């Protein structure tokens, strides 16, 4: 029998704030050990407490990315004890390689595994780790099919040994314990006392960088990830931070999509009521400027029916007593103020962080090898676009599952109902979604989700609960039976075709006892096709003729590009002659908008939010023309294509490049910008804000380029310059 030791994954380095002494202490015993009693997935929250002695293995250990990551992590101090290569045994980096995770558990006794395999292999790798009862499983891959993740969570829900972080997450890192399981940029981190949990990787790095510059450092940083379903969410992380003696304050980095932020707000309210001296909490939310109905880069960055918007998430956290900021670069100063107001000794916290860190230099040199610059370097990333079927296509597909649809009844019957199958993100499972109305003004408030297990499907009792909530429980037997059969048929379609959402509207006309089904909506996750080559026939139905050519070009280059609607500005808005004349005159169409080029979906959303907040009012009266995410690893080719896409919009008068160099090097980005500038023939001023790895080198490259490029490392200064140039200001050479 494999002993489960996750009640104390390691003895972690404890920085004693009051005495400035470093001492070793066991992990907090505040969480119950799942090895001592039967429990559920919640009992595995304790497994997130990683540290200097946490024993780590890599799945896909001998791969190129895993090898590079392991070398960096080992040099930093992570206790990597070996890895797995299916069917093979041997040695790699001087460490043992075993043929299976079970063999690794038996021989290496790891506390955690990092999964470094491609998306099409990731689900099987996670399942193997769950079956081997690895205490902590970290999955960093993007684009794992949603139905694979729901099946995995069906497995996780029935056990109390393994905890999942991710997928589509940068991972988890203990700056104090020097334990990294993921691909976070190590030069950004410093040991300290602020706990971070984030959906966005780039925004978490911005947060970390601000704390490092402020001398506060980080205790534990948990990447929740941007997928539809997260293995570890905000509340899970908050429970860890509450009990963690290394953590003096907490930061949440959220975005539109799901209800995790609202659930965190409820937890924080209860926490502040029951704890005499609660830890200060601050947060940032992004996605205020996201257009409705679009997926904003991250697979989970969309708002479903009844889910919170960026505005509702912000208000929920603010009402819970959380201090809100609009950009993560502000966190350093904000956290110092909050710590001081809470009665904590900021000087001691800074000094203890400095002792642990020994003041390593921040962002002056890279540990990562330079990649050669090439204009023709191909990009392997592909944007994963979800598939919506047309009404006719939906009708045909539903008919193949014996679901016959009709035109919407006219006039609308007094009683209509909304029904379907979708994702219950918090329950990490599929669910029946139901409402006793289809009235758009009421639907969001009256919709209810009834989760069920992915592997067993909706039970008769869940189906009956849904019928009751639809207010059809008093209907004649025939429509009740038809509705129950409809739910079963929708679930069959949902599972077999790997849908994200499948809904219809229902009515039972007074003159008939037949259920009328109309207004079908089918929404599919194409990761099953693009990552795993499943559902090829379904995704062959995609009609690209309705997609703008710029968006198709972006998709082919692995870029997420979404043009935004023109905002309405006050009459004082300047329209200078230096701006692009419209191709076709359109009354009232602004010509002073900002084209944005950003690496990372969260940072791209936040950039648009802050530009709107700072520059929409006079005298600037401008805002973003687009959302553009080059991806976490931008290349010269993606930069060049991004400029081409942005400048195809005649509304753009200035380009704002906002980069946080994590694994991406700022000097490489600077050279890529110059290359793109020359290839594309840029005739607009360009403002570049570089922060992160090799930022000084990147700024120097731009200064020497003798081009109309304004370079900044400070975000606020860059934004003000963007506003000036958007309204006719001239860019001087840097």
From TrEMBL:
Higher taxonomy: Eukaryota, Fungi, Dikarya, Ascomycota, Pezizomycotina
Cross-referenced SUPFAM superfamilies: NAD(P)-binding Rossmann-fold domains, Succinyl-CoA synthetase domains
State the Gene Ontology terms under molecular function: succinate-CoA ligase (ADP-forming) activity; succinate-CoA ligase (GDP-forming) activity
According to its UniProt entry, the protein's GO biological process terms are: tricarboxylic acid cycle
Do you know which PANTHER family this protein is assigned to? SUCCINYL-COA LIGASE SUBUNIT ALPHA, SYNTHETASE SUBUNIT ALPHA, PUTATIVE (AFU_ORTHOLOGUE AFUA_1G10830)-RELATED
Q: Where is the composition biased (Polar residues)?
A: 374-384
- The source's superkingdom equals Eukaryota
A UniProt-annotated Pfam family: CoA_binding
The organism named in the record is: Trematosphaeria pertusa
Q: Which GO terms describe its cellular component?
A: mitochondrion; succinate-CoA ligase complex (ADP-forming)
UniProt region (Disordered), positions on chain: 354-391, 571-591
* InterPro entries noted in UniProt: CoA-bd, NAD(P)-bd_dom_sf, SUCC_ACL_C, Succinyl-CoA_synth-like
Name of the protein this chain belongs to: CoA-binding domain-containing protein
Per the database record, which ranges form the CoA-binding domain? 50-144
